[in-house]
UniProtKB/TrEMBL annotation:
Positions with biased composition (Acidic residues): 16-26
Database matches in PANTHER family: DYNEIN AXONEMAL ASSEMBLY FACTOR 6, TWISTER
GO molecular function: dynein intermediate chain binding; protein-folding chaperone binding
Pfam families in alphabetical order: PIH1_CS
Family: Belongs to the PIH1 family.
GO CC annotation terms, alphabetical: cytoplasm
Domain PIH1D1/2/3 CS-like: 32-127
Protein's name in the database: PIHD3 protein
Disordered: region residues: 1-29
Amino acid sequence: FQVKSENKKTIWSTEEVPEGSEFDDTWDPREKPEYEILFKQHVGTEDVFFGMTGKDPSTACCEDIVIKIKLPETKYSDITLDIQDKVLDLRTPKKKLLLHLPYPVNSKEAKARFLSEEEILEVTLRVSRKFDFINFS
Protein backbone atom coordinates (compact mmCIF):
# COMPACT_ATOMS: atom_id res chain seq x y z
CA PHE A 1 0.00 0.00 0.00
CA GLN A 2 1.55 3.23 -1.14
CA VAL A 3 0.11 6.74 -0.93
CA LYS A 4 0.98 9.07 -3.76
CA SER A 5 1.38 12.68 -2.79
CA GLU A 6 2.40 15.85 -4.58
CA ASN A 7 5.05 16.63 -1.99
CA LYS A 8 7.17 13.70 -0.81
CA LYS A 9 7.84 15.36 2.58
CA THR A 10 4.18 15.60 3.63
CA ILE A 11 3.20 13.31 6.47
CA TRP A 12 -0.57 13.51 5.92
CA SER A 13 -3.00 15.08 3.52
CA THR A 14 -5.35 17.95 4.35
CA GLU A 15 -8.35 15.57 4.21
CA GLU A 16 -6.95 13.63 7.19
CA VAL A 17 -6.74 16.66 9.50
CA PRO A 18 -10.05 17.32 11.30
CA GLU A 19 -11.58 20.75 10.86
CA GLY A 20 -10.88 23.01 13.83
CA SER A 21 -7.75 21.19 15.00
CA GLU A 22 -5.69 24.34 14.40
CA PHE A 23 -7.49 25.89 17.40
CA ASP A 24 -6.69 22.99 19.74
CA ASP A 25 -3.92 23.73 22.21
CA THR A 26 -3.38 20.82 24.59
CA TRP A 27 -0.70 22.70 26.52
CA ASP A 28 -2.99 25.58 27.53
CA PRO A 29 -3.45 25.37 31.34
CA ARG A 30 -6.77 27.27 31.41
CA GLU A 31 -9.72 25.23 32.60
CA LYS A 32 -12.74 24.35 30.48
CA PRO A 33 -15.92 26.18 31.54
CA GLU A 34 -19.23 24.45 32.13
CA TYR A 35 -21.54 24.68 29.14
CA GLU A 36 -24.88 23.46 27.91
CA ILE A 37 -26.02 22.86 24.31
CA LEU A 38 -29.71 23.39 23.56
CA PHE A 39 -31.55 22.98 20.28
CA LYS A 40 -34.27 25.40 19.26
CA GLN A 41 -36.93 25.14 16.59
CA HIS A 42 -39.57 27.54 15.42
CA VAL A 43 -43.06 26.05 15.58
CA GLY A 44 -46.50 27.44 14.96
CA THR A 45 -50.04 26.26 15.56
CA GLU A 46 -49.88 24.14 12.41
CA ASP A 47 -47.05 22.17 14.07
CA VAL A 48 -48.35 21.98 17.63
CA PHE A 49 -52.02 21.26 17.04
CA PHE A 50 -52.24 19.82 13.55
CA GLY A 51 -48.80 18.34 12.83
CA MET A 52 -49.02 19.63 9.26
CA THR A 53 -45.34 20.39 8.61
CA GLY A 54 -43.92 17.03 9.71
CA LYS A 55 -41.64 18.53 12.36
CA ASP A 56 -40.81 16.39 15.36
CA PRO A 57 -38.90 17.09 18.61
CA SER A 58 -35.63 15.67 17.26
CA THR A 59 -32.55 17.78 16.54
CA ALA A 60 -33.06 17.08 12.83
CA CYS A 61 -35.91 19.61 12.85
CA CYS A 62 -34.14 22.33 14.86
CA GLU A 63 -33.09 25.60 13.24
CA ASP A 64 -30.81 26.99 15.96
CA ILE A 65 -28.20 25.78 18.42
CA VAL A 66 -28.04 27.71 21.70
CA ILE A 67 -24.87 27.29 23.77
CA LYS A 68 -24.89 28.59 27.34
CA ILE A 69 -21.40 28.94 28.81
CA LYS A 70 -20.87 29.68 32.51
CA LEU A 71 -18.11 32.26 32.97
CA PRO A 72 -17.86 33.19 36.66
CA GLU A 73 -15.72 36.19 37.57
CA THR A 74 -15.48 37.28 33.93
CA LYS A 75 -16.12 40.67 32.38
CA TYR A 76 -17.65 41.08 28.94
CA SER A 77 -14.53 42.86 27.70
CA ASP A 78 -12.34 39.84 28.58
CA ILE A 79 -14.20 37.43 26.28
CA THR A 80 -12.77 36.48 22.90
CA LEU A 81 -15.15 34.44 20.74
CA ASP A 82 -14.39 32.96 17.32
CA ILE A 83 -17.06 31.00 15.46
CA GLN A 84 -16.31 28.93 12.38
CA ASP A 85 -18.69 26.66 10.44
CA LYS A 86 -18.05 23.66 12.73
CA VAL A 87 -16.06 25.09 15.65
CA LEU A 88 -16.67 27.51 18.52
CA ASP A 89 -13.52 28.88 20.16
CA LEU A 90 -13.96 30.87 23.38
CA ARG A 91 -11.10 32.32 25.43
CA THR A 92 -10.97 34.38 28.59
CA PRO A 93 -8.05 35.01 30.95
CA LYS A 94 -9.12 32.04 33.15
CA LYS A 95 -11.15 29.77 30.83
CA LYS A 96 -10.81 28.23 27.38
CA LEU A 97 -13.39 26.28 25.39
CA LEU A 98 -12.87 24.63 22.03
CA LEU A 99 -16.17 23.10 21.00
CA HIS A 100 -16.72 21.06 17.86
CA LEU A 101 -20.33 21.73 16.92
CA PRO A 102 -22.77 18.87 16.24
CA TYR A 103 -24.00 20.48 13.00
CA PRO A 104 -22.46 23.00 10.58
CA VAL A 105 -23.62 26.55 11.33
CA ASN A 106 -23.79 29.86 9.49
CA SER A 107 -21.08 31.76 11.38
CA LYS A 108 -22.12 35.11 9.87
CA GLU A 109 -25.57 34.91 11.52
CA ALA A 110 -24.27 34.06 15.01
CA LYS A 111 -25.51 36.10 17.96
CA ALA A 112 -24.02 36.31 21.44
CA ARG A 113 -25.09 38.05 24.59
CA PHE A 114 -23.53 38.15 28.03
CA LEU A 115 -25.91 37.88 30.97
CA SER A 116 -23.78 39.56 33.63
CA GLU A 117 -26.12 38.78 36.57
CA GLU A 118 -25.98 35.02 35.85
CA GLU A 119 -22.39 35.19 34.51
CA ILE A 120 -23.45 33.26 31.39
CA LEU A 121 -22.54 33.83 27.76
CA GLU A 122 -25.41 32.76 25.51
CA VAL A 123 -24.45 32.06 21.88
CA THR A 124 -27.17 31.42 19.28
CA LEU A 125 -26.06 29.78 16.03
CA ARG A 126 -28.19 29.21 12.92
CA VAL A 127 -27.81 25.65 11.64
CA SER A 128 -26.81 25.34 7.97
CA ARG A 129 -28.82 22.51 6.45
CA LYS A 130 -29.62 21.35 3.04
CA PHE A 131 -33.31 21.49 2.18
CA ASP A 132 -35.05 18.19 2.71
CA PHE A 133 -38.55 16.94 3.42
CA ILE A 134 -38.40 18.34 6.98
CA ASN A 135 -36.32 21.50 6.60
CA PHE A 136 -37.86 23.37 3.71
CA SER A 137 -38.00 26.94 5.02
